[in-house]
Amino acid sequence: MKAAVLHEFRPAEESPLTIEDVPTPNPGPGQVLVKVHACGVCRSNLHMIEGEWRRYGIPSKLPIIPGHEIIGEVVELGEGVEGLRKGARVGIQPIWSSCGRCDYCLRGMEHICPEKKLTGEHVDGGYAEYIVADARHVYEVPDNLSPEEAAPLFCPGITAYGAVMKADLRPGMRVGVFGVGGVGHMVIQLALLHGADVVAVSRRENHLRVAERLGAKWLINSSEKDPVEEIRRIGGLDVSIVFAPSSKVAEQAFKSTKLHGTVVIGVHVELGWFPFYEEKRVVGTVVGPRWAMREVVRLASEGKLKVIHEDYPLEKANEVLRKLKHGEVDARAVLIP
Ligand SMILES: [Zn+2]
Ligand SMILES: [Zn+2]
């Protein structure tokens, strides 16, 4: 099969992925073989490919095929797979498998299982014509969603849902969305579904136009204005949600949040000085559990959650990574093998 493979870490400008022929994998017991129809390109793929996540032990093997927001068709069932048929349209998200036995798995929080395996980081991912998936971690996808619009539900979609879930939103609350990319554009929509008002903060005009289109009430270009000052002028935020991978942005979000407010952070940042007497709550968030993944697919299939995407052939994977790195992707880029 054709795949985009990472052999060694290099900057996106140096075309780190090679398009090559590799053996098509075989599904083991409890696994399925999926023919990939579309795979989204995530910023975390870029971090891994450029070697930034070596310090976290990611990827755990080289060479590796990246990609973890995948739509495809089940073409082969491994031994003992039940409840899935050949020909089913399915999605695969970053959580490739979980142990099913630990306290977190038993509490429906398998996305933080210490033994979880990550798609495209511990096992080969979706920048390829085929992928092997754990049958317990695939999700049926209705026909009214195209592969290109459904693929990003499986990382930015579930990630946005997880973040908004932790924010405990109520109608009328004011939510700041810091970073309007793949995840941010879905956070905005989910916050609006809760009846909240959205302040979108981004350094890039193209991202702010996306936020405006989706219904954000205030738009702040942080390369031109100080977002803390601007937000304090309108009375501060009840909740800040941060998906821009920058410690400076996390600090701005914290300072823009009202006393007793909540700051939800879904990226690696350094948190400095912590004024306890402001009684703010800081919560981390990472993807989400399987039941929430189903909710995300349902919302999209009912037309309540839209994915803004641009599509490229798999061969252009390197070009797409460069565009993503330089902020030239409006919301989400999707590769088609
Ligand atoms: Zn992702
Ligand atoms: Zn577990």
Search tags:
337 residues, Quinone Oxidoreductase, Chain A, domain 1, Rossmann fold, 2 domains, seven-stranded mixed sheet, 10 helices, binds zinc ion
SSE succession: EEEHEEEHEEEHHEHEHEHEHEEHEHE
Q: Which fold name corresponds to the CATH topology of the largest domain? A: Quinone Oxidoreductase, Chain A, domain 1
Q: How is the main sheet built?
A: 7 strands, mixed
Helix content: 10-25%
- N-to-C CA distance: 10 Å
What does this structure look like?
With about 325 residues, the protein is an alpha/beta fold. It has two domains: about 1-155 and about 290-295 and about 305-335, Medium-chain alcohol dehydrogenases, catalytic domain (Quinone Oxidoreductase, Chain A, domain 1); about 160-285, 3-Layer(aba) Sandwich (Rossmann fold), CATH 3.40.50.720. The protein is about 25% helix and about 25% strand. It contains ten helices and 17 strands. The strands form four sheets. Strands 3, 4, 5, 8, 9, 16 and 17 form a seven-stranded mixed β-sheet that branches. Strands 12-11-10-13-14-15 form a six-stranded parallel β-sheet, sandwiched between helices. It has a two-stranded antiparallel sheet with strand order 1-2. α4 packs across α5 (about 185-195). The termini are close together. One zinc ion binds near residues 98 and 99.
Please give a quick description of this structure.
The chain is 25% helix and 27% strand. By secondary structure, it is of the alpha/beta class. One zinc ion binds next to loops.
